[in-house]
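Working notes for the structural subgroup meeting. M.R. asked for a predicted model of this chain before we commit to crystallization trials. I am recording the input and output together here so anyone reviewing the notebook later can reproduce the run.

Input as submitted:
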Amino acid sequence: MKPNKAIVELNLTKYNQVVDIEVPLDISVYELVCAVNQAFQLEQDTSNINTCHLKTEHPIGFFTSTQKLEECGIVNGTIIRI
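Returned structure, recorded in C-alpha cell form:
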C-alpha cells in the first residue's frame, strides 16, 4: 500500500525560511501553493492557477498547478521550493 502523505522540506527561498511539513499526496500543486501561501502569510497572488507551480529536489522537477503531488513523485525527504 502506497503512503498517502509525505514529510517534505519546504524551502521558502524568497522569505529565507525552511520548514518540514507533512503534506497529503492526493492534493494538487495549486492546492498546496494556496495552503502554504495562507499558512505562512506570503501574500503571493494565487488567483491565476496557471502561475502556481513547484520546483523540487529528490526528485528534481518543475510541476504545474493541476498535477497531484503523488503524480509528481513527492516522497518523504523531497525538497519543495516555492
